[in-house]
Amino acid sequence: MSEFLVIVESPAKAKTIERYLGKKYKVKASMGHVRDLPRSQMGVYKESNFEPKYITIRGKGPVLKELKAAAKKAKKIYLAADPDREGEAIAWHLAHSLNVDITSDCRVVFNEITKDAIKESFKHPRPINMDLVDAQQARRILDRLVGYNISPLLWKKVKKGLSAGRVQSVAVRLIIDRENEIKAFIPEEYWTIEGELFKGKDHFSSLFYSLLGDKKTELKSQDDVDAILKEMKGDKFKVVSVSKKERKRNPSPAFITSSLQQEAARKLNFRARKTMMLAQQLYEGIELGSSGTVGLITYMRTDSTRISEVAQAEAAEYIRKEFGETYLKEEQRKEKKQSNAQDAHEGIRPTSTLREPNSVKQYLSRDQFRLYKLIWERFLASQMSQAIMDTMSVDLQNGNVLFRATGSKIKFPGFMKLYVEGTDDQVDEGDKMLPDLCEGDEVFKKDITPKQHFTQPPPRYTEARLVRTMEEIGIGRPSTYAPTLDTIQKRGYVSLDNKRFIPTELGEIVHELIFEFFPDILDVKFTAKMEKDLDNVEDGNVRWVEVIDEFYRDFEKDLENAEKEMQSVEIKDEPAGEDCELCSNPMVFKMGRYGKFMACSNFPDCRNTKAIVKEIGVTCPKCKEGNIIERKSKKKRIFYGCDQFPACEFISWDKPLPRSCPKCEGPLVEKKLKKGVQVQCTECDYKEEPQN
User: Fold this and answer.
1) Active site residue 299
2) pTM above 0.85, yes or no
3) Do residues 197 and 405 lie in contact, with contact meaning Cβ atoms separated by under 8 Å?
4) For the segment 409-459, what is each residue's pLDDT rounded down to a tens digit?
5) Cα 671 to chain centroid, rounded
6) Gap between the terminal Cα atoms of the chain
7) Which listed residue (54, 78, 299, 493) is catalytic?
8) Which residues pair with 286 in a beta bridge?
9) Is the peptide bond before 646 cis (omega within 30 degrees of 0)?
């Protein structure tokens, strides 16, 4: 008989920990929460200081029965759920269900699932931290009060199946606000003049900077460009100033939850939900042949970049051995703590630097390997020396016109030898060093090329951009980013187009109603303050009931007003202008979770539905008669085809444009690049400057 019972959340975790602890310990999994608020009712007694009503989650009866049987046989019970608010709450609910004294040393926490970390954590058990539990409880009750009060109102006034949530509503607002910015954006024309110059056999690029004696000159029209070109005399340029500098670049710190989600999106093309699922697997443990199951990374829900001294020392020894002393960070910089960071855990790092990605590749799935490699490289790079860049800026004069050329070259790669952080925008990271130039040197013109540009609207949010924005303004916490993005898509309030969020008509309707009657719910500063209040509960500085009460006093007034004043929004079926091919009744446009679609008006007798054909305003370049429409493949990938199909079989993955190539009159398309799009001709080499 086992003397000690240890309860964790997942079977994978249980298997790993049991092997580390030995025969005296039996480790079982609760499969997450065992108790929660009921789904069929509010479950919060507002008149009794917001006392929650907890019940056993449906389907968890057998799990709880098994845990109770094991608890009766054990001398002592340890609750070892994840080391965060949610984990503390799971431990508290388990303690209640199994009659464990929460003031006893029953709680065990660890940041990594390795033999040493597990054994050390069991030397320091502690009571359940009720401040952490109360912070989680306050968030749960807040979300229940918002969701279970506003959602029925939306069902009644708009349509069934809608919901509202505290953090998700703000996320939708950010997406809608950005879409409105894009619609209101007015492009402004501007020009650049590029000079292709040479000195001997060396060619380099420069850009018009200003007229002599002036500050940087903006070129807003063709007339401005013509005026500058008239000022230029001959093909000769004189070097009037040369500036050489050495620039140092620091490595990025170890990942936190949000930066991991962002970088995995940029470099691996992972959705936030997928990143967290894979990270959970790496944290809980992977079977590594004769080594058994090993946790490969530290806990993945964190907002701290802090690294333990032991991990720093191991990384330093590895860097010294593999790269040399010069690649080792001279002194450990104290990573700057964000103002809203809880700093409860270390940053995300490999449990051992010595466990190189290639050494465990055979035991990992392709995606597990890619994410582990990203985490391993980012952490190791964070412990390496700065990169040193040589930069050079040269001013070149022709008549009264000044051009400027800039370049840089890596002098010492430092951390860049291993890893460089990705960006959301197009950045040329390549070396672009200029020839050796000195003041008084003469260089010559090869070509002068004026280029017209237009300012671009702000980009739509990708998952990575939205997570970064939510983090910056203090909305949500590490554990909430991925579920929030998931929820707003499942509710049909937003959709993804080319991996960028677009609000649906349904999302805009719901947002408008919430904005009118519950302004605080959509107020970014108000929601960020709520997050800080929850942090204060966790720190023991304020009681959770006070936070809920302060919120509910104003919310209750808004709710009463909405019940009286909110008008019903009838989403009428619009005639689609065509008949059903199955029963000949008129087709209508209906509103669904993911926007509008066509359906037969004879529903439910006829259940025919069709996607709405989206024309893009381009005549088919192949048959010259049909119109190009947007279609979706079985895997939901957008492509473009002729509406005369199957008579015309034209298809294109790239979006055709309504204008022709200025060089050969051939069809132009919008080619999707890794970052942004580029207009290209399908019949010649004509290309336009890429746009983000």
Assistant:
1) yes
2) no
3) yes
4) 899 999 999 998 887 655 454 567 888 899 999 999 999 999 998 888 899
5) 24
6) 64
7) 299
8) 294
9) yes
